[in-house]
Amino acid sequence: MKANTYRKYTPEFKMRLLKEHLINKISVSDICEQHGIKPSLFYVWQKDLFDQGGVIFEKPKSNKPAIDKQQAKINALQEKLTSYCQIWCLST
Q1: Contact 22, 33 (CB under 8 A)
Q2: Are 21 and 31 in contact (CB under 8 A)?
């Protein structure tokens, strides 16, 4: 009995095949036959590209607001600690 073995395809390989179809207008059946893959797998890759491809156009999100919020909290705690220290020093 043959064990199920799955081939791992690199993102570069998938993109190359998708470009052959989308840019060079090579038919899906020709690409799949040439590379030994099933058309259903090719269409999964194409769907993934169209569904998730927009990510490359997104601008990286800045975490500056979170850092500013943390810094404000740190500053407030430092002020509170300073006032407690001043009160404690005066009472001793």
Answers
A1: no
A2: yes
